[in-house]
Amino acid sequence: MQGVSRTLWEEVKFDTKNVTTIDWLTYPILDITETPDTIDVVLIDHPEIAPTGGGEPSIRPIAAAIANAIFDATGVRIRRVPFSPDRVKQALS
What we know:
By secondary structure, the protein is mostly helical.
């Protein structure tokens, strides 16, 4: 869900001199009401492959997967996160 939040909402904003995103009250994140009721997880058993870890590195493909879903649905490629409603509308116009 952190990857979805980063892809759809999160963005540090700046003016000409400073960071203007300065607190957690105004920093946009995915709200709990916007998350799915369930998430299906599929574990693939490959005992012949050595463990390589997990966790944070697995967040990286989330933006690409969502970008590909948007492209599949609309034919428009969006390359800058967050994929906010305004950015999606702008890309579609």
